[in-house]
Amino acid sequence: MMIEFILNGTPHKLDVEPEKRALDFLRDDMSLKSVKEGCGEGECGACTIIVDKKAVCSCMMLASELEGKEILTSEGLGNSENPHPIQQAYVKAGGVQCGFCTPGFVMSTKALLDENPNPSDAEIKKALEGNLCRCTGYEKIIDSVKLASEMIASE
Ligand code: FES
Ligand code: FES
């Protein structure tokens, strides 16, 4: 089916397989490899993207459900030459180790800070409760979100 959507700021009109998951569509058809598959069951958050300003699991969406939506992935925030403050903060505060979970955390953080620029620890934990990390322990991730909040406020 033909769908229209805005992906990382660029409008697209494309034919998609209606049964394909949004995760597979973004990774395979759009080459957005920041969108990771961990559990494939909505439990780990590795596949988190932002759709119409909300953080969602792309493994639990169909590509056809992207019709008319505005979608953001970590690639749309920044890249290694020009990283977004949230991406910089995760590196500086030690919230990244193997990095598999990081794009998902970054997108959940983006959705949080857009809505609540100065969240409390409890609000950060709540916003990130759908994202799992096997490496860092969560303290450094909370530090990363706080640093990102400060960096954005001082821009
Ligand atoms: Fe989507 Fe784990 S891969 S939540
Ligand atoms: Fe390895 Fe989070 S940094 S899973």
Any chance you could write out the topology, listing elements then pairs?
Layout: E1 2-7, E2 10-15, H1 22-29, E3 48-51, E4 54-57, E5 70-72, H2 74-77, H3 85-92, H4 102-115, H5 121-127, H6 139-153
Parallel strand pairs: 1-5
Antiparallel strand pairs: 1-2, 3-4, 3-5
Protein architecture, described:
The chain is α+β, with helices and mostly antiparallel strands and 155 residues long. The chain is 36% helix and 15% strand. It contains 6 helices and 5 strands; from the N terminus they run ββαβββααααα. Strands 2-1-5-3-4 form a 5-stranded mixed sheet. Helix 3 packs across helix 6. It starts with a strand and ends with a helix. The model has no long low-confidence stretch (mean pLDDT 97). The chain binds FE2/S2 (inorganic) cluster (FES) (2 copies). One FE2/S2 (inorganic) cluster is lined by residues 96-102, 133-136.
- Please state the average pLDDT score: 97
Q: Report the structural category.
A: alpha+beta
Extended strand count: 5
**Helicity, as a percent range:** 25-40%
Molecules bound to protein: FE2/S2 (inorganic) cluster
Tell me the major beta sheet.
Answer: 5 strands, mixed
User: What is the straight-line distance between the termini?
Assistant: 42 Å
Give the ordered list of helices and strands: EEHEEEHHHHH
- With strands numbered from the N-terminus, the spatial order across the biggest sheet is 2-1-5-3-4
What general form does the structure show?
Answer: globular
Number of helical stretches of at least 4 residues: 6
Strand content: 5-15%
Q: Which residue ranges are poorly predicted, with pLDDT under 50 across at least 5 consecutive positions?
A: none
Rg of Cα set: 15 Å
What is the assembly state of the chains in this entry?
A: single chain
